[in-house]
């Protein structure tokens, strides 16, 4: 089926099989390997990407459902290598260890901060409920999200947010 969408600001027009899921398409066809394939059943959140501004699980979304959509992956958040405040905070607070869950956590928490720029710990933990992390125990991830929220512009490059402060 013919589809047309934007991925990280780039127009993508393609003919895809109706059974292809978004995370597989991004990784195999577009070379965007930031989103990870974990459970493939919607449980772990490692595959999370943004579709039309909301975090979705890429293993549950068929590409053909996304015709006309705007997709952003973790690669699109920092196209020039400048980390967002959230990414920087995850680094600073040791919110990532093996890193397998991290792209999904970044996309889910970027969505959270866009809809609730000043979340409390309870809101952050609720927002993380769809993202499994086997390494960190979540404490450091929560600290990082709180730190990013305190800086305001969660999806701007870290230096830009700092200079805005
Ligand atoms: S791979 Fe999609 S939720 Fe686990
Ligand atoms: S950092 Fe390893 S699963 Fe989260």
From TrEMBL:
**Residue ranges constituting the 2Fe-2S ferredoxin-type domain according to the UniProt record:** 1-77
Name the domain of life: Bacteria
Has the keyword Kinase been applied to this entry?
A: no
Entry's Gene3D superfamilies?
Answer: 3.10.20.30, [2Fe-2S]-binding domain
Q: What are the UniProt keywords, alphabetically?
A: 2Fe-2S, Iron, Iron-sulfur, Metal-binding, Oxidoreductase
Database matches in Pfam families: Fer2, Fer2_2
Signal sequence interval, chain numbering? none
Report the protein name in the record. (2Fe-2S)-binding protein
Q: What is the lineage of its organism?
A: Bacteria, Bacillati, Actinomycetota, Actinomycetes, Streptosporangiales
């Amino acid at each position: 089926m013919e589809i047309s969408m934007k991925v990280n600001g780039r127009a993508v027009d393609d003919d895809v099989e109706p059974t292809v899921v978004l995370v597989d398409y991004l990784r195999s066809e577009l070379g965007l390997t930031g989103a990870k394939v974990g459970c493939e059943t919607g449980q772990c959140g490692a595959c999370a990407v943004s579709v039309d501004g909301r975090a979705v699980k890429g293993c549950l979304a068929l590409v053909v459902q996304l015709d006309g959509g705007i997709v952003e992956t973790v690669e699109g958040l920092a196209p020039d290598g400048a980390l967002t405040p959230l990414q920087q905070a995850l680094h600073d607070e040791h919110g990532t260890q093996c890193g397998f869950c991290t792209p999904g956590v970044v996309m889910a928490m970027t969505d959270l901060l866009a809809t609730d720029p000043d979340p409390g710990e309870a809101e952050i933990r609720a927002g993380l409920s769809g993202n499994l992390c086997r390494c960190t125990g979540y404490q450091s991830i929560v600290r990082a999200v709180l730190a990013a929220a305190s800086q305001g512009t969660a999806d701007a490059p870290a230096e830009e947010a700092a200079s805005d402060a």
